[in-house]
Amino acid sequence: MEALKAGMKEANKAVIKAYIQLLGLLADAIGAPIKQWTKKCLVPMIFNLSDKQSLVRQDVIDSMNKWAEAIGPEQIVTYTCI
């Protein structure tokens, strides 16, 4: 998870998109136990919502929806208000 967190700071947008998509797949696969990595992985992913590329923003939204299905939407709202 540390590597995924570090990947969110890459300069290459294609790499960032891959990490974001991977985080969404992990949320699907792991389910509710992914909550323990919310602060470490979800928060850096949320910062990419301000990216100028619409494809990156859309990937973030898709992954956030998968996290919301896994841990509940109220957790997502809590971290977007930080």
Outline the biggest β-sheet.
none
- How does CATH name the architecture? Alpha Horseshoe
* Secondary-structure element string: HHHHH
Structural class: mainly alpha
Description:
- The protein has about 80 residues and is mostly helical.
- It contains five helices and no strands.
- Helix 2 (about 15-30) runs parallel beside helix 4 (about 55-70).
- The two termini are about 20 Å apart.
Question: Tags for this entry?
Answer:
82 residues; mainly alpha
List the helices and strands and how they pair.
Elements: H1 2-7, H2 13-30, H3 38-46, H4 54-71, H5 73-80
Task: Produce a short descriptive summary.
It contains five helices and no strands.
